Automatic annotation (TrEMBL):
Taxonomy of the source species: Eukaryota, Metazoa, Chordata, Craniata, Vertebrata
GO annotations of cellular component type: cytosol; Golgi membrane; trans-Golgi network
Record-annotated membrane-spanning stretches: 20-41
Compartments where found: Golgi apparatus membrane
Protein name, as recorded: Protein SYS1 homolog isoform X2
Keywords, in A-Z order: Golgi apparatus, Membrane, Protein transport, Transmembrane, Transmembrane helix, Transport
Origin superkingdom: Eukaryota
Organism from which the protein derives: Octodon degus
Membrane protein topology class: Multi-pass membrane protein
Primary location class: Golgi
Name of the encoding gene: Sys1
Any Pfam family hit: SYS1
Amino acid sequence: MAGQFRSYVWDPLLILSQIVLMQTVYYGSLGLWLALVDALVRSSPSLDQIFDAEILGFSTPPGRLSMMSFILNALTWG
């Protein structure tokens, strides 16, 4: 039976590669959404928009832009 999925074998390399791929796709698409939103409002892009917890919130304009990008990213890939 060629081509049958190995559901009885635990493959840690497969699991790790799937985790890495999903994280890469998630953060890559989030970066694209942030770049697009920043370009639309002429804001300067920063890695703090992704990784800084203090920016994530609706109380400041950069926080609203970041949250809008996170929501668009979730709707795109959800």
